[in-house]
Structure formats: structure tokens, C-alpha cells
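If you are new to this repository, start here. Below is one unmodified record pulled from the training split, so you can see the exact layout before writing a loader.
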Amino acid sequence: MAATLKPNAPEIRKAAQEFINYLNKAVTPFHATQEVKERLIQAGFKELPESGHWDIQPTSKYFVTKNRSAILAFAVGGSYKPGNGFSIVVGHTDSPCLRVKPISHQKSEKFLQVGVSTYGGGIWRTWFDRDLSVAGLVIVKNGEKLQHKLIDVKKPVLFIPNLAIHLETDRTTFKPNTEIELRPILETFAAAGINAPVKEDPKGEYDPRSIVSNHHTQFLGLIAKEAGCQPEDIVDLDLYLYDTNKPAIVGLEDEFISGARLDNQVGTYTAISGLLESLSAPAFQSDPQIRIAACYDNEEVGSDSAMGASSAFTEFVLRRLSAGGSTTAFEEAIGKSYLISADQAHAAHPNYPAKHEENHRPTFHGGVCVKTNVNQRYATTATTHAILKQIAFEAGVPLQDMIVRNDSPCGSTVGPILSTKLGLQTIDVGCPQLAMHSIRYVLFLKFSFNQFIYSEFADTSSIFQATTLYSTFYERLATVLANIQ
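And here is the target side for that same chain:
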């Protein structure tokens, strides 16, 4: 039973370490999607082309991707017929970060710099004094063909140093100008061997595919080397900055997970892990449902994209899965379906206890948090909550309640978006964590009874608890729904 396992139990440690292994590779939405894709293929899933014909068979497993940054996997139950329901768990692959601008060459005080855009609601002060690298997607030309290349430089190549405290006029408040003061340093003029950076002009006839004049020669050369091509072959790129300080299991008793992108790689990883784990049980052979795990991009900026939860992509997939039944098979299926939106939740912070509602204070190792907001920032209802309580009871996984204070702003998730667009009964859940949207979380120490008590990031128990909950959800949903009066 997950509720009785201690934070340092072998099952907890194993699940947390496997997540860390994944997180170390999932440095961008593209890399996260690729890692999920490889796990699915190893488990016998078949990739389907979005633009091709689908021939869906019971007990078979499939996945489809969008923009290489979102993925939707599904396993067809042995008793599935068009018009039957969908058991869905969703997460998202993106996190707040800095992304390279289309024209990135900048310079100041004999430093070459790279222009970046702020993506999402990041805690931008945490990006200072970090060893940053760059990764993402590069599109190159090969004759008349265009090829996609996934790259990860891995080594620290970009830096945003803080201003010395002696030069600060306000030493108590730090709010950087994100356009001017958040420009990473790439190289000095001296190291580049130049007196001043020169914007290169395209050689020969104008080619709209060329981007050599948009970036520093040194930067584009670095990217081209990783992509295995020449700089002039690069047609476009989508690059993300990230902290090279690797995620890890930490703490006096190895009970914490320290790392960036926990929001929301925890949701993505546990949704996929729960789906894969559920398929080993005999119940899959007779399941009337299709089990789905979806991981979207662009949640951090509102989900309004082709690969985001606001697009018609999910509806298109579900309609294709309902094909072959009656003319109302899709609509019939919606009424037999249930969706879990798995996105991180706020644990009660030991240094800011007044920021949390007095009766809703999620703790580490306390279980998966159910997020409720009567203003519909979360999609949880009494019915969907009751259904998950029954599944959690059968799974042996504890649940916690989370709401925000009336005098505090509230975030949101893809849950209300999908619930609204598809008419799906939905619940919002998440694993507890601290310092959400920080590039690298701060370690807080509290001295008590001559021992150090660590309180940071996320807890190791969450990975095992969430995976177990979602696996049981896939296995038991059809039965639980059938028993509702």
C-alpha cells in the first residue's frame, strides 16, 4: 500500500530515481516528447501519422505527436467498441524559461550576448548566476529536403551575472528589467578575436532560408556543430536555455527531489508511467475503455497553439477513435469518460505559512493534491472528486485538498480548458512542491532539536504515489463509473 511506505522505502527511491533519469534528459518540450516516445516504443506502442489512416484494434497501443513537442498515447481496451469511454490523464511538457530570439545577436561592453525572450511566468531573478546551456530543435536543409535535428549542447555556454551589491541603489528589492538586464553573455570580444562584432551579410544571392546574419557566428557555429551541419544549412531553430546543474535526490534522508522543470515534467512522467504500468494487469484485456495519456505544449502561456490543450487536436483524435460506430458514437463516449489534469500543486511553505489557506495545507509525502477552485480555475467538482476518492482508496494512495486563499491569485491548468471544450468530467490534481517556476529551487534550513530539517522542491514519495494512482485509475475507472447512481 502506497500510504504505508516510508519516504526512504526502496519502491519510493526507485521511482524517484527513474524520474530523475528522465528529467535529466527532458530539458525542452522536444526532448521530453522524445523521451516519452522512446519509452512508448519500448513498451510496444506504434506511432500513427496524424495525416494518415488509422486502423485501431482492441488491445493494441498507439501514439501520435504534434509539433514534436506534444504527444498523445492510447491503449485500446480488449472490450472497446466505438461509443465506449476514454480514461484520460494529461500533463504538459513545457516550463517557464528563456528562449532564443529569431534575431539574437547583441553586444555590450565588449561582450557578445544572445537575445532571449521570456516564456511563461518564470521567477526570472533565479536565472542570474547560473551555468546555462542551450537545447532544442534545429531545422536544416539537405538539398531540397528539410530535416529536423534535436540538439543539446549540455556544457555551460551562457551566463547572466548579477550586478555587484556595491552598485545597487536598492539592495532590498531585485526586479530585473527582462528586456535589458536578462541578456546572457556568450563570449568576450577578446576570446572571439575581434575588435567589434560584425553582422555578416549573406554571401551570393539572397536566400530567405539563410539565418547566418541573425546570430553571432560563434553561436550559430556551436549550434551547427551539435546538429552535424554547416551554419549556412540551418533554416530555422527553436532553442531553450536551461540550468546545467542536474536534478538530483537530496536531503538528510534522501527524501527530496531538487531540480528545474518539476512543473510539469512530474505530471508528464507520471501520466505516461501510470498508463504503462496499468497495461501489465489482466484487466486491460477486458477493459471497455480506451486508456489515454496526453502531454501538451504551451500550457505555461495559455495553451493557445496547435500543440496546446486549447486546440482541436484532442477532439480530432477522440473522434477518430470513435469512428466505426453510430453517428453519435463520439458524443456517447464523452458521457462515459473522465479526465485527470495532472499539474503540480503548492505545498505549504515553512517560511511563508500565512500564504496558505488555514485548512488546506498540502505537505510533502502526504499524497496527491486535489485542487479545487469555485471560480473554475480548476475543473474539480464534488462528483469527480468522489470518483477519484474511490480510486485512491483502492490504490492505497492518500489524497490532500488544496485551495488558494480568497485574497490570493490562483493559477490554472489545462483541466478547465479540456473540460470546457470537450464536455468531459474532469478533476485537477498535482504533486506538492515548493518554489514553482524557479529555474533552480532554494534550499531552506530550519534548526530544531539539534537537527537540520530540509524543506525544498518536491518529495520523492510523489512519483510513486501519482504513478500508482493513475495506474489504478486506468484499471478501475470503468467499474467505478458503472457503480455511480
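Two things worth knowing about this chain: Residues 91 and 463 are 14 Å apart (CA to CA). The chain has two domains: 2-95+260-482, 97-243.
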